[in-house]
Amino acid sequence: MVLKLKDTYLSDVITEADYKSIEGDIKRAHETLYAKSGPGNDFLGWQDLPVNYDKEEFARIQKAAKKIAGLCDVFVVIGIGGSYLGARAAIEFCKGANYNKLKKDTPDIYFTGNDISATNMSELLEICEGRDVCVNVNSKSGTTTEPANAIRIFRELLERSTARRAQRTVYS
């Protein structure tokens, strides 16, 4: 792959001599990266994507996604920091930031547990009201305040929802 730098707005700040002065460093960095020989080289698996990946794991993920899509209208991801940002970045990269506003045959996806806003939580609970909800908890310890609160709230919501479904089944 070839990268080209458009330096239209840099030409007043960075000169051709500046570029030349780092050319050797850039070439060495490139060689080190692609030879996977530098520090942190065990974290370079992304270089081989999308050709080299765990196809069995991908098949399991696709199967789970299909099952979830058939079970719910709303998919809630609970986490904070890296425990939710990866999922959010992937969804926004693949589907865009306005995913929930589009007509589709898959669940809306919401993220919570990353702040302590009562307003955000109330709005999300209102969105979930009367809809089938699936929850994905991403937390290393389960004890960080923000996701721990969201876990408790959504556990209660799911328990109430299950109880209501059981009552409807018994009385219908």
Oligomeric state, counting identical vs distinct chains:
single chain
The top-level CATH class of the domain at 55-171 is Alpha Beta
Distance between the termini: 62 Å
Low confidence ranges? none
Give the radius of gyration: 23 Å
Which architecture name of the domain at 55-171 does CATH use?
3-Layer(aba) Sandwich
Averaged pLDDT: 90
Find the count of extended strands (DSSP E, 2+ residues): 3
Q: Label the structural class.
A: mainly alpha
Quote the CATH topology of the domain at 55-171. Answer: Rossmann fold
Strand content: 5-15%
Helix content: 40-55%
Which descriptor suits the 3D outline?
elongated
Strand order of the largest sheet: 2-1-3
Tally of individual helices: 5
Strand count, sense and barrel status of the largest sheet are:
3 strands, parallel
CATH homologous superfamily of the domain at 55-171, by name? Glucose-6-phosphate isomerase like protein, domain 1
Q: State the order of secondary-structure elements, H for helix, E for strand.
A: HHEHEHEH
